[in-house]
Amino acid sequence: MRLKDKVVLITGGYTGIGKAIATRCVAEGAKVVVNGLEEERGLALVAELGEENIAHMTVDITEDQAPKKLVEKCVAQFGSLHILVNNAAYIASSNINTTDADFAKRIMAVNAIAPLLNIQAALPQLSKNKGCVLNIGSINAWGGEPDLLAYSMSKGALMTMTRNLGDSMFREYGVRVNQINPGWVLTEKEILNKKEQGMEADWYKEIPDIFAPAQRIFSPEEIATACLYWMSDECGPVSSQVMDLEQFPMIGRNLPKTWEGSHKKK
């Protein structure tokens, strides 16, 4: 058991990647506190994994006292806190014409500022336990798609924060800070989003090569498996690092020949 006797706090842990991480943490011997916005989903996850292993707190992480309350929940429920996973995210489309001030502030508040405040609140516990932080970013942090402008900006900010704190906090407090940048993941919300956009119910069964050389996208469980290394003591002194979890390189990508052929001049 790679996380035996560890206490893990996971924001956005009721569904998708967060739920998969919580499930894997419990399987590896950890006690977990998850956060989310839908109380029913939180209760269902506790029922699934057992209240002796997991507790939940339904709260918006941008609320003033949310970080403090979540850390206090960990200590009250399981006596300590060793690992913080900043997974909660606000994913929404916007571009140069549709990104207004209120929208930009909201997406930055959830995706970049809240993780910082969570780390601040957790630092006394993490420092005492020589714990770690794992931030869940996105490959969109490297530039993003035209219609993911504000979201990409927020994930870029998160990535810079990871590199900054991963150095400064490890030197001063012995707390590692790392990040993973997942590519396209088949979460419940992604399935719902594509359905609302008018796509077929089984759209994910036929993904074009340009998006997925493997002919499929990632499962939340695959992302959770990758997270385990960064959360465990096996990570050793590695800090301030960002790992992309994608099927193709972000720089120097080779486009499929079928795509190249269809776009050649006649």
From TrEMBL:
Belongs to the short-chain dehydrogenases/reductases (SDR) family. This is SDR family oxidoreductase. It comes from Arenibacter aquaticus. Residues 6-176 form the Ketoreductase domain. InterPro entries: KR_dom, NAD(P)-bd_dom_sf, Sc_DH/Rdtase_CS, SDR_fam. The lineage of its organism: Bacteria, Pseudomonadati, Bacteroidota, Flavobacteriia, Flavobacteriales. Pfam families: adh_short. Transmembrane segments: none annotated.
